[in-house]
Specification:
It contains 1 helix and 4 strands, in the order E-E-E-E-H. With about 60 residues, the protein is mostly beta strands. A hairpin with a 2-residue loop joins strand 3 and strand 4. The longest helix is centred in the last third of the chain and has 6 residues. The two termini are about 20 Å apart.
């Protein structure tokens, strides 16, 4: 569920770096919404990131 059905954007990984330069793993989740979209003329439920919704790549039902 944590990936966009349109562009494939998913989670990103990196490090939390403290002031003492200790590193621990961190995960950033994309802003994914469950949306009813029109796909081939029929409504379908998809997981879409908000940047795809704002740019108009998806036609909402």
């Amino acid at each position: 569920m944590a990936a966009c059905s349109v562009c494939g954007k998913g989670v990103h990984f990196g490090n939390n770096v403290s002031h003492a330069h200790n590193k621990s793993s961190k995960m950033w989740k994309s802003n994914i919404k469950s949306v009813r979209c029109i796909v081939d003329g029929t409504p379908k439920k998809m997981y879409v990131c908000t940047s795809c919704l704002r740019s108009g790549k998806v036609e909402r039902a």
